[in-house]
Structures are given as structure tokens and as C-alpha cells.
Amino acid sequence: MAALSNPAGQRMTTLIPIKLQGKVKITPENKCSFCQGATCCTYFTHQIDAPRSIEDFDLLLWQIAHANTQVYKDADGWFLLVNNRCLHLQADGRCGIYETRPQVCREHSNDDCEFDGPSGEEDFELFFRDYDALLDYCRRKFKNWDSRLGSPNAKPARPRRSRA
Length: 164
Ligand code: SF4
Ligand code: SF4
Known about the structure:
The protein has 164 residues and is an alpha+beta fold.
């Protein structure tokens, strides 16, 4: 999946009609002007440490419990995928702060971006679309997953006293 942001400076100037797309060679320079929706500005990803322990996955469950959040793992590692559009993305698909957009937007490459086709679950080693999908994975990965919380009536363990 492409990283984040819309680098589409060309959007601000020359919009090439979509109907000409079949007759015009798509180049990195004009590609964004053909793009409808600027998908790259409608989400961001954030790399996280690879979860290993029950505690790690428990934390990940809390994160994916938040709206519009998914989790995936690919060759580069584990990522949160937050599907929220940038507040600066205008209705016409242009960047509302183009001249002062963040550096990450400036560095974004449109090479192999969503314009070339949407990412699918087959692009990832692991993909969790929601809380239940991750919970199911946790239960299969850890035999003692459901016992991690103990009894709801159990008293918290007393801290050990240090010996003088
Ligand atoms: S600041 Fe502009 S280029 Fe960057 S993600 Fe938002 S709309 Fe896209
Ligand atoms: S999805 Fe690709 S083509 Fe569309 S605006 Fe973003 S970088 Fe440009």
C-alpha cells in the first residue's frame, strides 16, 4: 500500500479531462490530475512494533477497537491503518494547504499508488479489518487467551515487599 498524503501539485494547476485519459500517456507528472478522490489523502498508516506477547496483542485490540482503524502486516512490518480523510482535502480532490503541506506529503511518490488499483487483503501477510478479526486471531495464536484477564472478582495481586 502506498504511504500517505497527496503530493499532487499538478492538481492545483492543470486538470486534464478524464475522457482524454485513454489517449494520453500517464506519467508521474500528470497522473494525479487523472485521479478521482485522491485516495492517498483519505487514510494514514503508522508503523508499530511487532506484537509478540499476549499483552502486546491486548493493546492492539484496544487500538483496533477505535473507529476506522485496521491493522496489517507486510514485508515492512506491522502497521495501524487509520481510514480517516485529511481535513485539508477539498471536495474537488485538491489539497487545501498545498503551498504549506507537510513534508511527508511533498515526499510522497505516486509510483504504484491507489490510482493503479486498490490494495486488497491479498497484498498483506496479515490483515485485520476489525476488532473481531483480530480477536479471533489472538484466540487461535494463544491457547490461554481468554484466561488472561482472570476472574472479574479477583483481587489485584499485592506488590512484593522488598527485603532490607
Ligand atoms: S495536507 Fe494536503 S497533500 Fe497532505 S494529506 Fe492533506 S490534503 Fe493530502
Ligand atoms: S492516489 Fe496516486 S494518483 Fe491519486 S492523488 Fe494520490 S498519488 Fe496522485
